Amino acid sequence: MYRAKDFIETTEGLLFAVVAAGSEAGKIRGFLRYIRLDGCYRKIASDEANRFLAENHPQYLFFSSQLDARLHAVAEPDVIRHYRPLPALRQLLQTVIPADPALTDLHSLCRYLQEDGFDCRQLGITGSLLLGLQNPASDIDLVCYDRELFQQLRRHVRALIAQNKCHELHDDDWLSAYKRRNCALSLDDYIWHEQRKYNKAIINQRKFDLSLVVTAPEAKPQNCKKLGFIHLKTQVTDDSLSFDYPAEFAIKHPEIAGIICFTATYAGQAQTGEWIEVAGQLEVDAAGVKRIVVGSNREAAGEFIKVIR
Q1: CA-CA distance, 118 to 281, in Å (whole number)?
Q2: What does the DSSP assignment read for 25-55?
Q3: Would you call 205 exposed, middle or buried from its count of C-beta atoms within 10 A (0-12, 13-18, 19+)?
C-alpha cells in the first residue's frame, strides 16, 4: 500500500514523494523531488520538476480527474523501489553509532521522546533521511500514523521545549521556513500560526518536523469539478482532522461543507470556534458536496487560511 510521505523510485533514477494514498488509473500520485545526475541525486524545486518532466519524461505528468488537478504520477510497473517511513526509522534507530550529525540528532530526539514514555517504533521518517541522502544541514521529518498519538507527540514537543531539551525556532529559522513556503501570509501572521502548533522545533541546532498521515478506509473515488476561486470569512466548527494529510476543517456556511488543504503550511492552522479568512478553489463532488481546496497545486499561489485575530 502506498501512503502519503512514502517515496518511490523509477528506473530512470527519479525519486517521487507520494502525496495520496492508493492509486488512480493504476498510477501512484506524487511529486518529483530528486533526480539522479552523473550518479548523484539532486533535490529540485517544483517549477524545475515540472519543466524536467515535460522535457524528459512526460509520461510522469498526470491529470487527476479525481482531484481535478495536474500533478505527477508513476505507473506501478515503473516503480523499482518503495521507501516506507515506518520500517526505515526502526532500522535507523538500530544503528549503534550513527555515522553523521543528522542521525546523531535523530537518535537524541527519539531518546528524549522515549524517556517521556513515547514509543518511537510507532513513528516513521521521511525526507532525505528516509532516502539516505541526508547532509549535515538536513532536517528531521517524522511521520505519525495515528491521530491521538500525534496529539500526544505535540504535547511531548511542548514539554521538551519547556525542559530546555529542544527549542523553538529562532527568527532566522522562521524566516527561512517562510521563504521556502512562499505562502500568502505576512511573516508575522505565518509565525503566529506556526508557534502554536508545536509540530516543529530545534534540537542541537537542527530543525525537526512532525506530520500526521491517517489512511482513511477505502472509499469509492469521486471525481471533483473546480468551480473557480473563492475568498470568504467563516467560522471553524470542527478541527479534529486539521492535522491530517490532507487537512480538513468543517465550517459554518449554508452551502459549503468545509475546507480541504493539501499544503502542510496550513495544516493545524485554525481551531474550533475561531473565525478565519480562507482563499482557495471551490469544488463540487459527484454527490453535490462543495468544499474549498487550499493547495490546489503545489505552489498554492494566493491560497491561504488565516485566523482573524
Answers
A1: 39
A2: TTEEEEEEEEEEETTEEEE--HHHHHHHHHH
A3: exposed
d(CA 241, CA 239): 5
Q: Residue 101 corresponds to which cell in the numbers above?
A: 550529525
Single pTM value for the model: 0.89
Residues 242 and 240: their CA atoms lie apart, in Å, by: 6
The Cα 217–Cα 234 span in angstroms is 29
- For 229-289, give the DSSP string: EEEEEEEEEE-TTTTSSSEEEEE--SSEEEEEE-SGGGTT---TT-EEEEEEEEEEETT--
pLDDT along the chain (309 residues), means of 10: 94 93 90 92 91 96 80 94 96 81 94 90 95 93 95 94 94 89 90 95 95 72 82 97 93 96 92 97 91 78 92
Which of 86, 75, 83 minimizes the C-alpha distance to 9? 83
Level-2 CATH architecture, domain 224-307? Beta Barrel (2.40)
Cis before residue 217, ω within 30 degrees of 0? no
- List the domain boundaries for the chain: 7-82, 85-212, 224-307
CB environment 209-225: b (16+ within 10 A), e (fewer): bbbbbbeeeeeeeeebe
